[in-house]
Structures are given as C-alpha cells and as structure tokens.
Amino acid sequence: MIIGIVTVFVIVMIGLVVSDSSIEKTSEEPEVVVIGDVIMSTKSSRPGCEETDRCYIPSVFTIDSGNQVTWVNEDSAFHSVTSGFYGEPSDLFDSGHLDPYESFTFNFDEKGAYDYFCTLHPWMKGQVLVG
Question: What integer is the mean pLDDT of 90-97?
Fold first, then answer.
C-alpha cells in the first residue's frame, strides 16, 4: 500500500512539473520596439557584409537638416555608431557599444556629409547626407 501511495505521489509531482514548464511566462513590462532608419544587420560583425553593402542598411541615408537618424542593432554582437572614419573619429557623435536590439539616435542640425563607422568592426561604415 505504501508503494502505491509513493507511486501516485511521484506521478502527481511529475505531472505538476511538466504542466508548469509548458505554461508560457510573460514579462510584466511591455516590450518596446524601436523602428530604426538604419539597421546594423544580422552577421554584420563578420567580415564580408561590406562586399554586398549590407553592414549598415542603408549604408547611405539622406535627411533634411534638423532631422534625426535612429540606428538599431539587429545583430547578435555589439556594435557602435561613431562619427568619422576607423582610426580617425571626428567626435561629433558616438553611441558607445550597443547591445543587440539597442538603438542610438542623433539629430543633424547642419547640412553636410557625415561619415560613421563601428569601432569594433572596421569594415562597417556608412554615411548620412544632410540637405
């Protein structure tokens, strides 16, 4: 009789564990989705995206002065958006290292061509044209 009770207890416990693990748990906080003007694409942390011009998408972005650009890191690696060229930053803007799905926004007030790059991946570069 004790073996029967222990067996039933074990079966009930296994059922509770299995049913609890199949319940989808949701976060209390809603997920914020940022729509970017420029995307750091998947696998852009690997050399080769520059060959197909797909490191920053689009690699050249045109806006009117007084507008802003938002970059979103959709890769699984860290990236940055830093003004200037690799080895020669211009210190106008720097996102710092962006985690996957983090974003960075900068407002462009003056007309001109603004080059930028990723400090971690020297093949990644882009340009904002402000008219």
Answer: 97
Question: CB–CB of 70/105 below 8 Å?
Answer: yes
| pTM across the whole model | 0.76
- Is 109 a residue whose pLDDT tops 90? yes
- Which amino acid would we find at residue 8? V
The whole-number pLDDT of residue 24 equals 52
CB 81 within 8 Å of CB 115: no
Question: What residue type is assigned to position 2 of the chain?
Answer: I
Contact status, residue 64 vs residue 131, Cβ threshold 8 Å: yes
* Fold observed for domain 38-130: Immunoglobulin-like (2.60.40)
